[in-house]
Design goal:
The structure is a homodimer. By secondary structure, chain A is an alpha/beta fold. Chain A is 18% helix and 32% strand. Chain A folds into 4 domains: 160 residues, 3-Layer(aba) Sandwich (Molybdenum Cofactor Biosythetic Enzyme, Chain A); 48 residues, Molybdopterin biosynthesis moea protein, domain 2; 90 residues, Molybdopterin biosynthesis moea protein, domain 3 (Molybdopterin biosynthesis moeA protein, domain 3, Beta Complex); 76 residues, Beta Barrel (Beta-clip). In chain A, the strands form 8 sheets. A 6-stranded mixed sheet of chain A has the order 7-4-6-5-9-8, with no helix packed on it.
Chain lengths: 415, 415
């Protein structure tokens, strides 16, 4: 009773993932927002900076008063006051021939349109300075609203918040924002040969690895993770586990193992029978990762992953991460570094299949130019050690028979 | 009373950072280990895999028994049993002419040295199969210890633990490991013009940004962060804050603002007078970031950073991150993506200074080859919006006057 794959291409598989919608939003505070994904566009409630500021220590002046100033013919200006840091200057106005002492970050007084650096001035007496370099209008000044004007779009929806975005929010006093909820991901490891990592495996058994690797990947990508532990190779036990994941409100269910077409592979049948679920794909033309299953239950994504850790991780990077980006409403290309590398040896493949080869990268100088070379990781593809040694995945597209030595290929870097 | 910088080069600055030692270690469990840095080399306590395993569903055989097998002249083998998943097979031994049913992940029985895929066999009767393809010794088998042999080095000291390393640890049953403590970083924001982000700034004041951006960067890089908040431009207040940071056991102190040479810049004097501290550098030939101060108190690193958020973030990426890598005992180059890009316009600089220019990258096809072009971010360098828009920093080395349009330059990608 051996089944067959119904192979689709990687791009068809990704197209199926476009059917899933971004999950719900919640309001959180700025302090918890690092790494979260903005769910509504954020606009500026006010001008940033809120006033024109000096970027130097020096004197606020009218630029035209320093026109043509030089060492031999300095401009003479009368100092009429000082901008004290953090104070509004309401009583000083810079009129022709006048200057006001100002510090980096100080508010430009009325009438002034530029700041002369202290270095280009000489104090003649407490009330008089010489300026011996001209200054252009708005030189050494950041104008009010130059970063963002009131109601400007500051952060578009779907942005993952990094230090710089949080800085802008702090600057604008935006202390709360709507972000996507953290997706709830449930991991189910299947296989009669598995024991938990804290057990010493009796002969014939090995420790479960996928629960650990998948939960680390999911956490890195912003999920709340529930590990359901190990379920034996049994249709009933696996179906119960999947239905439980649905009941928990999972946004993503990853079942590793049992995704192939052998008569001990139950994942397909289990997904078909999971309450309200519908299988979208069984088998995808990539290597490793061919025995991958995709199912849908409402907006919940169910993946059947190959049992071998190396294959499961490749499918994660290629498809699960893509699905997560859909659930979070982010661009799947954002945060993924792809670079061009020269093949240090031939990379054979076959037409009709996309290959993801674990490679190490070496930067070498060749003819004055720095080139990056990609070399396959030493060791058989089934080994977990190859993942530890690799810098990334070299992609062999579907429509070519591989790369010759010296050809340029694309490498997706491991985060 | 204006001071002067004592400028050193970026590489001299980094050399000073090499003086700091990795901080203490602690033992943690595998479940908390994601992103932590291994403090002692980890060796394998046993063979991985612990036994030779099949990577396919099929039959365990002696490869020589299938030598020359073909559709027209298949090898006939007697099936003498089955390897049940997760069970040790002690009573079956594969002698000449015999085969044993096996599943993916099953333990190879004694006597067998290869697995024939199910697809290449035909069942004649319950006890006899035909094999119509030859199989090489160890084909479809991962041998015992092929990933790691007992006492092999698995993870070198200084490795940041990712999903793949955690997977190896789980596979080997290593549930605890010694990692570097999370460095304690204290942030002090100085400036009379600052108010906390939750206040509406009165005229002349602005909200503090550096506390937010620096703590996000430090958290991303694995620190425990204490924000000391805003300290006014006062020598006494700043000295008290620095001494308090030392008393708290800080591994890293970041003081933003007041690092220049104006008479309102107190950080240098404060570091000189901080209990037990010693100033190592004041001023570095990079732009932005010239007014940077480095001091040392025991193994605690004290940084005086420019007050402007854009400069402070550049100094963070160039130097603070480097210092953190020293404290964690990791390679500063690891986790930093540098790529080559073509200058879309001229990038002028001056000899003797390293420039870090915020750029956006564009991938374009030119003459059949895909090239990445770097373009400076639109907007003046003092703007925080430029950081949000930038993809990374283009580096102009110290010994050149910049790049011409079309020249190749190095870009450090923002994480």
């Amino acid at each position: 009773m051996k089944g067959f794959f119904n192979l689709i291409s990687a791009s068809e598989f990704k197209r199926l993932l476009l059917d899933f919608e971004p999950i719900g939003a919640e309001e959180i505070s700025l302090k918890e927002a690092l790494g979260r994904v903005v769910a509504r566009p954020i606009s500026s409630p006010e001008d940033l900076p809120p006033f024109s500021r000096s970027t130097m220590d020096g004197f606020a002046v009218r630029a035209r008063d320093c026109f043509g100033a030089s060492e031999s013919e300095p401009s003479l200006l009368t100092v009429i006051g000082e901008v004290r840091m953090g104070e509004a200057v309401t009583d000083i106005s810079v009129s022709p021939g006048k200057a006001v002492r100002i510090w980096t970050g100080g508010k430009l007084p009325v009438g002034a349109d530029a700041v002369v650096m202290l270095e280009y001035t000489r104090q003649l007496d407490p009330e008089t300075i010489e300026v011996f370099r001209p200054v252009a209008p708005y030189e050494n000044v950041i104008e009010k609203g130059q970063d963002y004007g009131a109601s400007d779009l500051v952060i578009p929806s779907g942005t993952k918040l990094r230090a710089q975005e949080l800085g802008v929010l702090a600057a604008l006093g935006i202390l709360k924002c709507k972000v996507r909820k953290r997706p709830l991901a449930v991991i189910i490891s299947t296989g009669d040969e598995l024991v938990p990592e804290w057990q010493s495996p009796p002969p014939g058994k090995i420790r479960d690895i996928n629960s650990t690797t998948l939960s680390a990947l999911l956490e890195t990508d912003g999920c709340r993770v529930v590990r359901m532990g190990i379920v034996g190779d049994s249709y009933e036990a696996m179906l119960t586990a999947c239905n439980r994941a649905i009941d928990m409100g999972a946004d993503l269910v990853l079942v590793s193992g049992g995704s192939s077409v052998g008569n001990r592979d139950f994942t397909l049948k289990v997904f078909e029978d999971t309450r309200g679920a519908q299988v979208l794909a069984h088998g995808v033309s990539i290597r490793p990762g061919k025995p991958t299953i995709l199912a849908k239950r409402g907006n919940c994504v169910l993946f059947g992953l190959p049992g071998h850790v190396a294959s499961a991780m490749v499918v994660y990077w290629v498809f699960v991460r893509f699905a997560l980006c859909r659930l979070l409403g982010t661009d799947p290309e954002r945060g993924l570094t792809r670079l061009g590398a020269t093949c240090a040896e031939p990379f054979p493949s076959v037409i009709g299949r996309e290959d993801y080869i674990r490679v190490v990268l070496e930067g070498l100088c060749q003819g004055g130019e720095k080139k990056i070379f990609a070399r396959p990781v030493h060791g058989r593809s089934g080994l977990i050690s190859t993942l530890v040694k690799a810098d990334g995945l070299l992609v062999i597209p579907r429509d070519i028979e591989g790369f010759h030595q010296g050809e340029e290929a694309e490498v997706i870097l491991f985060p």
